[in-house]
Amino acid sequence: MTWIHEDDTPGATRHAGHLLARLADGTIPTYRVGQLLAERGFADSWDHDGGWWQGPEPGRPDEQPAHLVPACECGWRGPDIPYDVHGGEVPRRGESPMRDGAGRTALDTWRDHAASALTATGPETHRQALAHLAATLAELADERPRAALTLVRQLRELAALAEPLAVAGALAHRITWDTIGADLGQSRQAVHGRYKRPSADLTDRVHRLTGDTVDALLKSTRTPGTPPPATSTWQDEIRHLLITTPQKDQEQDPAGTPSQ
What we know:
It is a single chain. With about 260 residues, the protein is an alpha+beta fold. The chain has helices spanning about 100-120, 125-145, 145-170, 175-185, 190-195, 200-210, 215-220, 235-245, and strands spanning about 1-5, 15-20, 30-35, 35-40, 40-45, 50-55, 65-70, 80. It contains eight helices and eight strands. The strands form three sheets. Strands 1-2-7-8 form a four-stranded antiparallel β-sheet, with helices on one face. It has a two-stranded antiparallel ribbon with strand order 3-4. Strands 5-6 form a two-stranded antiparallel sheet. β7 and β8 form a beta hairpin. The protein is elongated. It starts with a strand and ends in a 17-residue tail after the last helix.
């Protein structure tokens, strides 16, 4: 069974999903196709307990999996989802049971991945928040220009702080460097080079947010099912950014003219 994302965005065909399953010993069953090993798919049944393994009969496991694993053609793997053969919704009187609770969770997880990889437009709530911020900045620029300048500086620093986390998240979703560059309004070479040979400033920002190096952050995105390091210090960094005052004002004379 293959999941297809309803999106005609270029590259959408890289994001066809399927369901794998992991046995209690931690392995994903495979079968041989010529000289290659293929992973067995799994289908969680909706009308009875458990599910069934896909692929040829020889070597097919005779046990139900311990976990379901959503996967994508792009190479992404989702987290292991505990599998209960008796799980699912309790049917209403006269209706068939809906036992594929874990299967639907896996499908929803893959859909979130595909949407994240294919959709560049932010949610409506985020766009509204940005519109409100822009209106606030325009108001400040007219009434309190120095406050507006401070806010511009903070926004610039905030964007620089958030970028490595967004890049790591994109790589974890198997978004290409070409797309990352395009979304940032830069070339692939410029963005990839910045993270391949990070500056001292970028290295410091990543260490403050993750406690690790830029290389370690990027390597973590290549491990299936392992999200980038969580940024437990994010709120502290934002608080520090917002309360940090700009450079000391120039000394002014009583008339308000900067002293020479």
